[in-house]
Amino acid sequence: MAKRSLRPAFWTEKNDWEGHSIVRIEGGYLIGGAAEGVATPDGGEGWKAYVARLDENLNVLWERKIEIRGNENVYSILPAGGSILIAGDTGRPGNMGFFVGKLCWKALDWGRA
User: Fold this and answer.
1) What pLDDT sits at residue 111?
2) Cα 15 to the center of its chain, rounded Å
3) Taking 90 as the threshold, does the pLDDT of residue 51 lie above it?
């Protein structure tokens, strides 16, 4: 079996970016994390939950930034049939919450056409 190596890729955007989860799917990867926030000692501010689909060469096919109540992070990502399940936290210390979401593959793939 031939060895495959993963070439690093770096994304830069407004403010900071954090990656928290990745799952291998047919034709590439799904990643989850947080984007467009500013890291601070108490957890930061302005974070949006982040989900992206990458091809085998780590090119972004589509990405979504999700804002619920502020300071969202995707920590778990799971493809399930025609959907992608995500879970993470939202809020700030002293006012934290948990969220679970379901994204539709067809709508996400259509959005990049």
Assistant:
1) 46
2) 16
3) yes
